[in-house]
Design a protein that fits this description.
Length: about 300
């Protein structure tokens, strides 16, 4: 694996944490595949980890894919601020070299589904790294935040893959926990009451993360998890078996079919669903279907 490092990208004083531990803390992770079938895995870490309580101010984030661009975003709910970037990944003629451009985040608070979008403020970096040329299996690393008082950094690791043939993760190994379980949907097809939803008939790409959300205009938004979160309103509505997630909500029966396994392992798993039938994202007027993923609901 080749690790490329971009020096300090964004310096902000709003991330104030106490240095406490030497090892990095994974703050959020997610992945997506663009239209060129290039899979990009994101992992943000605090290095060194610092105080975990204050680190949880970063109350969520995720990815959204559209064509060759993936929108990567994070949010600080306590300060009503959000930040992130667009990453465009295109293969060159040799097929193994990828051109990576990191651009300003073009998705606003409405498109990201932030509550009361008019109250949120976007934090913009002073500059963006130049285009990079990487190969499948490379990891690009750059600083999102640097605390000048403590030297603590929020570092983004971006791993590039081609057709999901190879994926790796940097850093020390640890034991797997239930909270590491991710849902992965690749070229999904939604079947409602036995009928294919036409808006999903030609869906391509992949989305993955501990929480995956799916918007289908006639029925609103569904958020899925493999872990029960009753305190957030999630209910056990179905099961995941291999490449199919079957569930019921609002008197309707749903099947979500994926190319490849939806959950890790070989067992059947309970599927927990948060359904908001009234959700309508203003930015997506006329759009029937889209997906997103995040490490927090």
């Amino acid at each position: 694996m080749n690790l490329k490092r971009i020096s300090q990208w964004l310096t902000l004083c709003c991330l104030v944490c106490t240095l406490a531990k030497a090892e990095p803390l994974i703050v959020m992770k997610a992945g997506a595949t663009n239209r060129a079938k290039i899979h990009v895995q994101f992992e943000a870490r605090l290095e060194p980890s610092g105080d975990r309580t204050q680190a949880r101010r970063l109350g969520g984030g995720g990815v959204m894919a559209s064509d060759y661009v993936i929108h990567r975003y994070m949010q600080d709910r306590s300060h009503k601020t959000y930040f992130g970037y667009d990453i465009a990944v295109e293969p060159l003629q040799d097929g193994s070299t990828l051109r990576v451009s990191i651009l300003p985040l073009s998705a606003g608070p409405e498109r990201l589904g932030l509550e009361n979008p008019e109250t949120w403020k976007k934090l913009a970096p002073p500059r963006y790294p130049p285009p990079q040329w990487v190969r499948s299996g490379d990891t690009l690393a750059f600083d999102l935040f640097v605390n000048p008082e403590t030297g603590q950094k929020l570092v983004e690791y971006v791993l590039f893959g081609r057709n999901h043939r190879r994926e790796t993760v940097a850093g020390p190994a640890r034991d797997f926990t239930v909270h590491d379980a991710e849902i992965r949907l690749r070229a999904p097809r939604l079947v409602v009451n036995g009928t294919l939803a036409e808006a999903t008939a030609s869906m391509d790409g992949m989305i993955s993360g501990p929480f995956v959300k799916l918007y289908w205009a006639p029925k609103g938004q569904f958020t899925f998890s493999l872990v029960p979160h009753p305190e957030l309103g999630f209910r056990k509505l179905g099961e995941v078996r291999g490449s199919t997630a079957a569930f019921e909500s609002g008197g309707d029966s749903y099947e979500l079919n994926s190319e490849g396994k939806i959950a890790p392992g070989s067992a059947a798993f309970n599927l927990y669903v948060l359904h908001d039938p009234d959700y309508r994202p203003p930015i997506y007027r006329g759009t029937e279907f889209f997906m997103g993923a995040s490490d927090k609901p």
